[in-house]
Design goal:
494 residues, 5-stranded parallel β-sheet, 22 helices, 15 strands, binds pyridoxal-5'-phosphate
């Protein structure tokens, strides 16, 4: 049975299902398994499996207190026809690399890969741990996560989800996606304020003991769906194993042949999952970490110093506009030899001075990683040149990764076959994409741009975009940031 310990050494060890329910350890650290299990099947065996079968084999050793039936049910409910392809995460070859398309789920971005299964892992965990309360998910969002969480939790029995977003701080398509969300248990609220206001309001409610008591008295408890949850990390390991298996099946690689992986990175969750896949025994050579102009991770991998004291840059890849990559803590813990004391010291320095420096010995354990970044101009050029060469259209996040891969090849001469994590559909960022390709987005609205993109790429407009065109608005609540707690009470009738 795998046990989870806090990366900061405090609190009590948790089973997998307890870690999924709690999200964060009691001392503010992240849950880390007592060991990283090895792959349970040979690569050849994986090559003959469906996505769902790979998902079971990869996740089971991490979620060892779930029964076979429970886990298989979660997988069946998550990876179904919400995805627009049976492959779930198909590979597309373009200009010398394999693009692993992680955007075929309900909200056409990679967050769907984990957020479509997390609600099921959570309610199963609640049942296993004899929790009678309904689970209330409270989320602040700058756009992507909110919609993916809404779609994941909608109509999942025993849960409610309340999402706060900055009324003037998300794109028109993102807002429309959220306020048209169906499901009796979903609530969406715009606030007068920015993302930080929404985030702080949510944190305040989470930390309010009186509120917690009021909730419990009425049969509710909070949980969090954010990217540090074990229930989001583990499902993300699956598609790296699946991608390798597909390449093997199609004869693109030999069994055991190493591949490189390039990941457009923000919170460090996706690339950490690739690192876990490697530690399970998947033949991955380099883990290439791609940043946009918020290049904290590039600097860290180069110098060994993590320093968030810098200006925040708004880019065309907003899901990577992050200065504190919260999942990096798990890697720090790993390269510190799973020494919680050492990790805790570094994290304390981060919270007091905004920076920390790792030892040369720790730095040596980062040899598998390679960091690079792409500027805004390079990102747009990458979208245009890939389209010109192959007719393949990618979104700005994926373009950051693609650009970084070109730089990596130039700098190292490494010709190892490479998988690039493609994290969003170009239809999610039509304006940036059309502007990059045609050098002029013009005055057209976002839906007209979607039509334009469809005729350029020959790819049908995804249902996720098409369906919100005419969908009725179902959520119209707007509130002041001071009113967030009252709104929650009202929705829960407490
Ligand atoms: C969240 C997100 C990322 C960053 O992933 P992390 O796991 O936070 O590193 C990259 N691209 C897109 C489109 C995303 O939504």
């Amino acid at each position: 049975m795998v046990k989870y310990f806090s990366t900061r050494g405090g609190g009590s060890p948790a089973s997998a299902s307890e870690a999924v329910l709690k999200g964060l350890a009691e001392d503010g650290g992240l849950f880390f398994p007592d060991h990283i299990p090895a792959l349970t099947k040979s690569l050849k065996q994986f090559a003959d499996m469906s996505y769902q079968e790979v998902a079971y084999e990869v996740m089971q050793p991490f979620l060892s207190d779930y029964t076979e039936e429970e886990l298989k049910n979660c997988i069946k409910n998550a990876y179904d026809d919400k995805f627009d392809t049976e492959a779930i995460a198909p590979l597309a070859y373009a200009d010398g690399a394999y693009y692993l398309e992680l955007f075929h789920g309900a909200t056409i971005a990679f967050k769907d890969m984990a957020l479509s299964i997390l609600p099921h892992l959570m309610i199963t965990a609640a049942k296993k741990n004899h929790i009678q309360n309904d689970i209330v998910i409270l989320t602040a969002t700058s756009g992507d996560t909110g919609k993916a969480a809404l779609a994941g939790f909608a109509d999942v029995e025993g849960t409610k989800i309340i999402v706060f977003y900055p009324k003037s701080g998300v794109s028109p398509i993102q807002e429309k996606q959220m306020i048209t969300q169906k499901g009796d248990n979903t609530f969406v609220v715009g606030i007068h304020g920015n993302f930080d206001d929404a985030q702080n309001g949510v944190k305040k409610i989470f930390g309010d003991k009186e509120f917690e008591k009021l909730m419990a008295d009425n049969g509710y408890q909070f949980s969090s769906a954010n990217s540090i949850n074990v229930g989001r990390l583990v499902p993300q390991i699956v598609y790296y194993v699946y991608a390798y298996a597909q390449l093997l099946k199609e004869g693109k690689i030999a069994e055991g042949e190493p591949i490189n992986v390039v990941v457009p990175t923000g919170n460090f969750g996706n690339i950490l999952a690739a690192c876990f896949a490697k530690n399970m025994g998947l033949p991955i050579a380099k883990l290439i970490c791609a940043s946009n102009e918020n290049k904290v991770l590039f600097d860290f991998l180069r110098t060994g110093t993590y320093d968030r004291n810098r200006d925040f840059v708004l880019t065309s890849s907003p899901s990577m506009d992050i200065l504190i990559s919260s999942n990096l803590e798990r890697l720090i813990y790993l390269i510190a030899g799973e020494d919680a004391e050492r990790n805790r010291n570094l994290m304390m320095q981060l919270s007091t001075s905004g920076k920390y420096e790792i030892s040369t010995e720790m730095q040596e354990k980062l040899q598998d990683f390679y960091g690079e970044y792409a500027t805004e101009t390079e990102t747009a050029q990458t979208i245009a040149s890939l389209y010109d060469k192959c007719g393949y259209v990618i979104d700005p996040h994926t373009a950051v990764a693609s650009c970084v891969y070109q730089k990596y090849k130039k700098q190292t001469g490494d010709e190892t076959k490479t998988v690039i994590a493609s994290t969003a559909s170009p239809y999610k960022f039509t304006r940036s994409v059309i502007t990059a390709i045609e050098k002029d987005g013009g005055e057209a609205d976002d839906f007209a741009l979607a039509d334009r993109l469809s005729s350029l790429s020959g790819v049908k407009i995804p249902e996720a975009v098409e369906s919100i065109r005419k969908a009725p608005v179902l959520h119209e609540t707007i509130c002041e940031k001071e009113e967030m707690a009252d709104v929650v009470k009202k929705y829960l009738g407490i």
